[in-house]
C-alpha cells in the first residue's frame, strides 16, 4: 500500500509518494489561491514521477496552514457565541477579554457568563443554570450565529456540565454546532476558552476546506481515506478536522521536523529547515519535536496548545548579502529567487549566489558569480555559518554531540559541520514536510488532575492515564501493538490538600490500514 | 459606634501616582521577576486591572513616606493555589468585600491599602481593591519578593499581628479571623479555610497604622517592579540584552547562564520541592549550577559552591526575553540566566532570618548576604 503526503505551505505545495519507508517521488508546486489547484498539481506531479498506479495509494495525508492563516489574516471567520459556565467565579473577565480588537468581532456581544462550573476538587461552584442556556439558544437563533463554544470552569476534571450544555443547545438551536473546551484544551481557562472560540469560528471554513480536499482527491481518482496532520505531528481523520480545525495550527514546522527524523532515521537531533526567507530550528526528541513550554500566541491570541518549540531566524536561500559579506538577511527576495538572484540572471546578491560561488551548490549559471571577490564570498559563508551555529546552539539541550539535520530548499547553505556537530543532509531534503505528513501517526492524550488519595500512588495514576490515552489512540485508529508513550509529565499542585497532581500523557501509534 | 464621620484624608492627593496601561504591563513583568519563581502569574491580575481601568476606576500608588502616621492601612493579598487562579478566575470584588467586612467588624474606616507581597500575582490585587474602594496603595509591601506563607511578611516579623483579618471567596462567603494565637496559627487556619473555599481566596489582614507601615514596610516595591518591567520592555524593543539591563537598573548580579539539564520535583507538605540542574553556556561553558526550589527559588550553587540564598532574590530568567520563568514553567533544555538581587535590609536582621532565612525552609545552610556588585 502506498501513501501520498501533501504539505500545503504559504508559498509551495509539496507532494510525495511513499512506499513503506521509501520515497518514490517528491514534487513542489506553487500554492494556489483556492488551495486545491496547487494540491492537484503537486499530487499529479508526484504520481506521474513515481510512475505508479494511483489505485495503489491507500492513504492520503495532508498538512495545511490554511486555518492558522485564516486566524492570522482575520479571513473566513464566522460569528459565534461564547458561553462560559462558572458564575459567580470568573465574572471579572468575560470571554475574549484579552483578544486583539480587530478579532473581537468573532464573539462581539455574544459572550455569556452562566452559573455552573466546578471547584478543583469536583464540587459544583453552582448548579448549571439551564434556563439561562435556553435563553442564550434563542439569541443564537435570532442572531444567526454559526456555532457555540462552551467552556466550563475545571471542565478538564469533569466534562459533565459542558456535555449537558451541548444537549440543551442541540435541543433548542438544532443544527448549530457546539464546541466543548474540554475536547480541545487544558487547564488554564482563558487560553482553553480562546481555543474553543477560535475553533467554533473556523468550523464553516473547515467544512468547506475539507470537502474541497475530498473533492479534489476524488476528482483525481483517489477514493482512499484521507487524514490531516495536527500540531503534534499526528493525524486526524478528515471528519475530525471538520470538528477541530484549530488542532492543525503549527503543523507545518512539525511535519518538517518529523520528516527530517524519518528521512535520516535519527530520533535525537537538531533540525534546521532552511526556506527562502527564514530558517526554523527545533530539537527532536524520540523522533518528535520538543514542545514549547510557554503559552503560544496565534494571531495575537494566547492559547495553550502544545506546539513545537521552534526558533526562527531571518536566513534563507533568498536572503540579501550586504556589507562585504558581513551582513546576511533578514531581507530576502523570497519566492522571486529564480528571477532576482545573480545566478538566475537577476541583480540581487543572495545567499544562493554565495553558495554557488563557494562551490557548495550548482544551480543557475555559475558564470554569473565568477567575478565575486573570493574574500567577500568567504566572509559571507562565515556569516551564514555563524548564524546557523547560534541558532542550533540555542536548541541544544546538552553538551553531548547531537547531529544536525538540514532540510528545506535552502539547505545548500548548510556547511558539512557546524562547530562540533555533524550535519546530515537527507535525500529528498526539499520535501521533508510532505514526508512528515505522509508518515504521521495517530495519537491519544490525557491531561487532568489526579488526587493521590486512599493509597493511590503517583505510579498508579500515571498507569491509569497511560491506559486511557492508549484507548483514545486505538479509538482514533492506531494499531495497539505499535503504541508508545512519547510524553509523560506530572506536575504536583502546590497549596492543595490530597496531594493533587496534574498528569499529562501522550501516546502515538501507527495508523491501522483497516481504519477508514 | 463605627467611625463613619468624614475625616481628613490620610495623604495628599497631589502625591498620588496614577498607573497607566504601560505601567501595568511593566508591573506584570516586574512583579513576575520579583516573584523569584513563585507568587503566581500576574497576567490575569493585569487583565483585571485593565478591565477596571476601562470601567473608569483609577489605580493609584502613594509614595511610602507620604501616608499619615495615624492612617489605618490593611495588608491585602490573594491566598491559595496558582493553578486554581488560572482556571477558576476570581469573581472580582472579593478583596473589596474583605475590606468592607473588616471595617464593619472593627468599626473603622480604612485609609489606604498595603501590599502583602509584590512578587507575582499578589502585586495586582491591592491595586484593584484600592481602585474599587477609592483608596491609594502604599508604595511598599511586606516581602519585597514572594514567599510561600503569610507569617513571612515584615509586618509580622516586626511584631504586628495579622489578625483580625477577613477572607472572602467567589461565592460571597466572608470569614473573620478574630484572633490567632500566633502568626503560624493564622497561616494554618487561613490555609484550611482557603481549601474549603475552593483553593483561592482573598485576605485582608493586619490593620496597621501608617507609622508602622513607614517603618517596617519594604519601601518602593511598586516603583521597583514597574522600573524592572520597563527595563525589560526597553531592552526587548531595542534588541539589547535584557539581563544586562535588569542588572544595571536593579544593581543585580548576573551569576550564571546555562541550560536546564535536569529537573526534579516532588510534593512535601503541600509545597513543591525541587532541584534544577544547569549546565553552563556562553562564558560559563563547562561549569555547573543548581537551583533549589520550594515554590520559590531558594538557593543557588555554582560549581558546588553556594553563591546566593534566601532571603536574597534568586531570579531564573529567560536568557532571550529577560522575563521570569516560574517554577512550574521550568522545562528541561530551557536556556536561563540566574540573576541575584540583594534583599532589603529589613529581611536581613536576625529576627527576619528566623522567619525567612534558609533555616525557616528546612535548609542546612548559613545565610551569607549577597556580595556587592
SSE layout and pairing:
The complex is a heterodimer of chains A (516) and B (373).
Chain A: E1 2-8, E2 12-19, E3 22-30, H1 36-50, E4 57-64, H2 66-72, E5 81-87, E6 111-115, H3 130-142, E7 148-152, H4 160-172, E8 178-180, H5 189-219, E9 226-229, E10 235-237, H6 238-243, H7 251-264, E11 269-274, E12 279-285, E13 288-289, E14 296-298, E15 301-303, E16 311-313, E17 319-322, E18 327-332, H8 337-340, H9 351-357, H10 374-395, E19 404-407, E20 417-418, E21 421-424, H11 432-438, E22 442-451, H12 458-475, E23 484-492, E24 500-509
Chain B: E1 17-18, H1 21-34, H2 43-54, E2 60-62, E3 72-80, H3 82-87, H4 94-106, E4 112-115, H5 124-133, E5 137-141, H6 154-157, E6 165-168, E7 174-177, H7 183-196, E8 200-209, H8 210-216, E9 218-219, H9 221-238, H10 242-250, E10 253-268, E11 271-280, E12 288-294, E13 296-302, E14 305-309, E15 313-318, E16 335-341, H11 350-356
Parallel strand pairs in B: 2-5, 3-4, 4-5
Antiparallel strand pairs in B: 1-2, 3-8, 5-9, 6-7, 6-8, 10-11, 10-16, 11-12, 12-13, 13-14, 15-16
Helix pairs in contact in B: 1-2, 1-9, 2-5, 9-10
Amino acid at each position: 500500500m502506498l501513501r501520498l503526503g501533501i504539505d500545503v505551505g504559504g508559498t509551495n505545495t509539496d507532494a510525495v509518494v511513499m512506499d513503506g519507508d521509501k520515497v518514490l517521488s517528491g514534487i513542489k508546486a506553487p500554492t494556489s489561491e483556492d488551495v486545491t489547484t496547487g494540491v492537484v498539481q503537486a499530487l499529479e506531479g508526484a504520481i506521474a514521477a513515481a510512475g505508479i498506479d494511483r489505485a495503489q495509494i491507500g492513504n492520503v495525508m495532508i498538512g495545511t496552514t490554511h486555518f492558522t492563516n485564516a486566524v492570522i489574516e482575520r479571513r473566513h471567520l464566522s460569528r459565534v457565541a461564547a458561553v462560559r459556565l462558572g458564575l459567580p467565579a470568573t465574572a471579572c473577565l468575560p470571554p475574549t477579554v484579552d483578544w486583539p480588537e480587530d478579532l473581537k468581532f468573532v464573539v462581539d456581544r455574544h459572550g455569556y457568563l452562566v452559573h455552573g462550573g466546578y471547584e478543583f476538587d469536583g464540587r459544583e461552584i453552582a448548579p448549571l443554570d439551564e434556563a439561562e442556556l435556553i435563553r442564550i439558544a434563542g439569541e443564537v437563533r435570532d442572531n444567526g450565529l454559526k456555532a457555540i463554544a462552551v467552556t466550563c470552569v475545571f471542565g478538564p476534571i469533569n466534562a459533565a456540565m459542558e456535555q449537558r450544555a451541548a444537549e440543551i443547545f442541540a435541543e433548542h438551536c438544532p443544527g448549530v454546532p457546539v464546541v466543548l473546551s474540554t475536547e480541545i484544551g487544558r487547564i488554564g481557562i482563558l487560553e482553553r476558552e480562546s481555543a474553543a472560540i477560535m475553533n467554533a469560528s473556523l468550523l464553516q471554513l473547515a467544512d468547506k476546506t475539507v470537502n474541497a480536499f475530498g473533492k479534489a482527491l476524488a476528482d483525481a481518482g483517489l477514493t482512499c481515506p484521507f487524514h490531516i496532520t495536527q500540531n503534534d505531528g499526528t493525524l486526524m481523520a478528515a471528519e475530525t478536522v471538520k470538528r477541530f480545525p484549530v488542532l492543525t495550527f503549527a503543523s507545518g514546522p512539525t511535519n518538517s521536523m518529523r520528516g527530517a527524523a524519518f528521512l535520516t532515521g535519527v530520533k535525537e537531533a537538531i533540525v534546521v529547515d532552511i526556506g527562502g526567507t527564514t530558517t526554523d530550528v527545533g530539537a527532536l526528541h524520540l523522533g518528535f519535536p520538543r514542545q514549547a513550554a510557554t503559552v503560544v500566541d496565534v494571531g495575537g491570541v494566547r492559547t495553550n496548545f502544545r506546539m513545537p518549540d521552534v526558533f526562527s531566524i531571518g536566513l534563507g536561500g533568498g536572503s540579501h548579502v550586504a556589507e562585504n559579506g558581513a551582513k546576511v538577511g533578514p531581507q530576502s527576495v523570497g519566492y522571486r529567487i529564480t528571477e532576482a538572484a545573480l545566478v538566475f540572471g537577476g541583480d540581487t546578491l543572495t545567499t544562493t549566489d554565495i553558495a554557488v560561488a563557494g562551490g557548495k551548490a550548482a544551480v543557475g549559471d555559475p558564470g554569473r558569480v565568477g567575478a565575486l571577490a573570493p574574500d567577500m564570498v568567504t566572509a559571507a559563508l562565515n556569516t551564514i555559518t555563524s548564524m546557523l551555529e547560534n541558532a542550533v546552539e540555542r536548541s541544544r539541550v546538552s553538551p553531548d554531540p547531537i547531529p544536525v539535520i538540514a532540510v528545506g530548499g535552502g539547505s545548500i547553505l548548510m556547511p558539512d559541520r557546524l562547530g562540533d556537530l555533524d550535519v546530515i543532509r537527507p535525500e529528498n531534503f526539499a520535501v521533508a514536510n510532505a514526508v512528515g505528513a505522509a508518515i504521521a501517526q495517530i495519537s491519544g492524550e490525557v491531561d487532568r488532575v489526579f488526587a493521590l488519595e486512599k493509597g493511590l500512588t503517583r505510579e498508579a495514576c500515571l498507569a491509569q492515564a497511560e491506559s486511557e490515552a492508549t484507548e483514545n489512540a486505538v479509538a482514533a485508529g492506531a494499531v495497539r501493538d505499535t503504541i508508545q508513550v512519547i510524553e509523560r509529565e506530572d506536575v504536583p499542585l502546590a497549596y492543595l490538600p490530597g496531594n493533587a497532581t496534574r498528569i499529562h500523557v501522550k501516546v502515538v501509534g501507527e495508523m491501522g490500514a483497516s481504519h477508514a | 459606634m463605627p467611625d463613619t464621620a468624614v475625616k481628613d484624608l490620610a495623604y495628599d492627593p497631589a502625591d498620588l501616582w496614577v498607573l497607566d496601561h504601560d505601567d501595568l504591563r511593566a508591573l506584570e513583568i516586574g512583579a513576575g521577576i520579583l516573584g523569584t519563581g513563585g507568587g503566581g502569574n500576574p497576567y490575569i491580575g493585569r487583565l483585571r486591572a485593565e478591565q477596571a481601568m476601562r470601567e473608569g476606576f483609577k489605580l493609584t500608588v502613594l509614595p511610602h513616606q507620604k501616608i499619615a502616621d495615624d492612617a489605618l492601612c490593611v495588608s491585602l493579598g490573594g491566598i491559595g493555589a496558582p493553578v486554581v487562579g488560572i482556571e477558576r478566575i476570581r469573581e472580582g470584588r472579593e478583596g473589596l468585600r474583605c475590606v468592607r467586612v473588616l471595617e464593619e467588624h472593627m468599626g473603622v474606616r480604612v485609609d489606604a491599602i498595603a501590599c502583602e507581597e509584590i512578587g507575582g500575582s499578589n502585586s495586582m490585587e491591592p491595586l484593584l481593591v484600592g481602585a474599587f474602594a477609592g483608596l491609594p496603595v502604599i508604595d511598599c509591601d511586606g516581602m519585597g519578593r514572594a514567599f510561600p506563607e503569610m507569617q513571612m511578611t515584615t509586618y509580622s516579623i516586626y511584631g504586628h499581628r495579622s489578625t483580625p483579618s477577613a477572607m472572602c471567596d467567589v461565592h460571597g462567603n466572608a470569614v473573620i479571623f478574630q484572633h490567632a494565637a500566633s502568626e503560624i496559627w493564622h497561616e494554618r487556619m487561613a490555609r484550611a479555610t482557603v481549601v474549603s473555599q475552593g483553593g483561592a481566596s482573598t485576605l485582608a489582614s493586619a490593620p496597621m497604622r501608617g507609622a508602622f507601615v513607614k517603618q517596617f514596610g519594604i519601601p518602593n516595591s511598586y516603583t521597583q517592579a514597574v522600573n524592572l518591567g520597563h527595563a525589560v520592555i526597553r531592552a526587548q524593543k531595542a534588541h539589547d540584552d535584557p539581563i544586562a539591563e535588569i542588572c544595571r537598573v536593579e544593581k543585580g548580579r548576573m551569576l550564571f547562564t546555562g541550560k536546564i539539564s535536569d529537573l526534579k520535583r516532588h510534593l512535601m507538605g503541600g509545597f513543591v520541592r525541587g532541584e534544577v540542574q544547569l549546565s553552563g553556556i556562553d562564558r560559563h561553558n563547562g561549569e555547573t549550577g543548581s537551583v533549589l526550589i520550594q515554590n520559590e527559588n531558594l538557593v543557588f550553587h555554582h560549581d558546588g559552591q553556594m553563591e546566593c540564598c534566601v532571603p536574597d532574590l534568586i531570579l531564573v530568567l529567560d536568557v532571550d526575553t529577560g522575563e521570569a520563568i516560574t517554577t512550574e514553567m521550568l522545562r528541561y533544555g530551557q536556556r536561563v540566566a540566574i540573576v541575584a538581587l540583594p534583599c532589603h535590609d529589613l529581611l536581613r536582621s536576625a529576627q527576619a532570618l528566623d522567619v525567612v532565612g534558609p533555616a525557616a525552609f528546612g535548609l542546612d545552610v548559613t545565610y551569607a548576604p549577597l556580595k556587592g556588585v
